[in-house]
Amino acid sequence: MSGNIDEYYPARGRVVLHVDMNAFYCSVHEAEEPEKYRNQPTAVAGSVELRKGVIVTCSYAARKRGISTGMTVSQGLKKCPELIVIKPDFHLYRNYSRAFMDIAYGYTPLLQAVSIDECYLDITGSKQFGTPLDIAHEIQSRISDELGLPCSIGVAPNKLLAKMASDMKKPNGITVLRIRDVPALLWDKPCNELFGIGHKTADKLKKMRIYTIGQLAAADELLLSEKFGVAGHWMKQAAHGLDDSPVRDDQEKNKSVGHTTTLPRDISRMEEVQRVFLNLADQVTRRLRRQKLVAQTVQITIRTPDMKTITRSQSLETVIDRAEDVYREACELYRKHWSEDKPVRLLGITLQNLVTKEESALQLDLFDYEQQPRKESLTKTMDLLRDKFGENAVLTAGMLTDDPSALIRNHKIRGTSLQTDFLRKSEDES
To answer: Which residues are identified as catalytic?
Structure first.
């Protein structure tokens, strides 16, 4: 599609691109080892072990053979015995993510990364690079030539339509979606295909006899507001293709979460160090979960009585957000890099290489696979307790025992009891 440049750069309005990498994890492995993976049915799974592995993404060759995200590895292999299952490499994915965003960033400083494999670009002020289609084609070509990765790009006057446009042609598609195109292209589709409306909201709309995006566009806004609050106004606007949310430059967003504590006296015994680390791990992971983030690198800080400071870090094979995992890694780092006879004045834990929990693919070991739902429920309940009753509502077990081997064990036992009591109380209140 081509046309006069002024058609794409209206006198009043914006031009937004949404760049969406196609089957990103699998495409990265194919770019790294094309002779091994090109045009092959591949899948990246949280664990390659058959009984517990879950497929987090799969190549388009695998999708043609019936493989889909969310399948277990065993289900995938039954459908496609030749499926190649690949262990995740988050460090590699982040490198490629930075590389494709660096290419896109060359066309505008207004780049907003929304996950590891997608970003918005506001190119309203980028006429020097050509029309929006010129820019989209050039970005797509450079990502393909320089990185060996496919991507789809949506071109639109706002973020909502740019996102929906990028989903229309995959892989390697470029789609222009203008507001005037919305009635013809979107209004006959079910409401849950409008970006931002999930299945639960769509089900509520069905009870109101609103089944399509077009019916949503024609619905009474007052009625929508009564049912959905401020979201009702947004849904009405979105159904007409209207969205004024800005593309925010988030190049400088938080890259770490950390906490340090200066000790009331110098300590050297491992039991005392463990107690401090458990409390620090508890605090930093709570902050991490509040931001809906997970981390792949744990760093400890040690300051001596003569004010010398050292840091040591360890990157993990998978991402974490629980205190017990951070505590374990911190203690291992300390034992590896510090001897017990040396006193310390300050200790700290910093979590780095942060990603949103939604975009992370968790690689679970055998124990975690069995215990994960219970652990997440327990952690969520303990966070709710603190939100409701204050930070001291749940005591860290390290403050209650001098037995280092019991620190995490007691923490779990207390948490389970608290969880039961809290859930019972919540049910009674409701």
So the answer is: 118
Rounded CA separation 59/37 (Å): 10
What is residue 50's predicted lDDT score, i.e. its pLDDT? 60
CB 239 within 8 A of CB 212: no
> Which CA distances in Å does 353 have to 40, 255, 314, 330, 358?
31, 7, 11, 16, 15
pLDDT, position 354 = 87
Contact 178, 35 (CB under 8 A): no
pLDDT at 364 over 80: no
Are 204 and 188 in contact by the 8 Å Cβ rule? The answer is no
Cα diameter, the chain: 75
Q: How does residue 264 score in pLDDT terms, banded at 50, 70 and 90?
A: confident
258 bridge partner residues: 350
Assigned token pair, 406 = 């019991």
Query: How large is the angle between the packed helices 407-429 and 366-389, nearest 10 degrees?
Result: 60
pLDDT digits (tens, 9 = 90+) for 131-165: 999 999 999 999 999 999 999 999 999 999 999 99
pLDDT of the residue at 51: 58
The kind and range of the H/E element at 200 are helix 199-207
